[in-house]
Design goal:
The chain is mainly alpha-helical. It contains nine helices and no strands. The protein has helices at residues 9-28, 32-37, 42-58, 70-73, 78-94, 100-117, 132-136, 139-153, 161-181.
Length: 185
């Protein structure tokens, strides 16, 4: 939490002081003396809840940053946005996952390791030697290596055979898997 939250009495009491009390409570453990010290009257509980309600009601969210205007700045018209929304809903409905959250979790399960290992953010050569064969079989690694070879070294199409082979293999495996996983109507 930002340091400025400590300057607001409600946030100080309900976030910071409560978190500190909880940490102390966990370090002490649940002794008989400690359990009896935790009891609070109904009036005290109602006062805390009232204070928390007033604190939450007093919060004002002020969106800021680069993505705030994204919805208004994209090139989607009303009809285009509706079409995109409908397409995404049909894809989710066709998948085995039942909710958008489940789809998001499955995508993260696949994409996050690939992003970390493939050289998008960190050089893939920094990972242990034992992991290198698996890393070089990732489609994003092949794509990154191919793009770097073309842009930085001027490699032609014949020099990209390895990258093409990995990407083609992934396409040949995942396309039939997608046909099986999605129930087209």
């Amino acid at each position: 939490m930002p340091a400025r939250t400590r300057l607001r009495p409600g946030l100080l009491a309900h976030l910071h002081l409560h978190a500190g009390a909880q940490r102390r409570s966990q370090s002490v453990g649940p002794t008989a003396e400690h359990r009896s010290a935790r009891r609070m009257s109904r009036t005290g509980q109602e006062a805390i809840l009232d204070s928390l309600r007033r604190t939450v009601e007093g919060l004002r969210w002020q969106p800021s940053g680069h993505w705030v205007q994204y919805g208004r700045q994209t090139s989607y018209s009303e009809a285009g946005a509706a079409s995109k929304r409908e397409h995404v809903e049909r894809m989710v409905a066709a998948s085995r996952a039942r909710t958008v959250e489940a789809v998001s979790g499955l995508l993260n399960l696949v994409m996050l390791p690939m992003w970390l290992l493939s050289g998008v953010f960190f050089a893939s050569s920094n990972f242990p030697e034992a992991m290198q064969p698996a890393i070089h079989l990732l489609p994003l690694t092949a794509l990154n290596d191919g793009l770097r070879a073309v842009m930085l070294e001027g490699t032609g199409p014949s020099g990209l055979a390895g990258a093409w082979a990995v990407l083609t293999a992934w396409g040949a495996i995942t396309f039939p898997a997608a046909l099986w996983l999605f129930r087209w109507r």
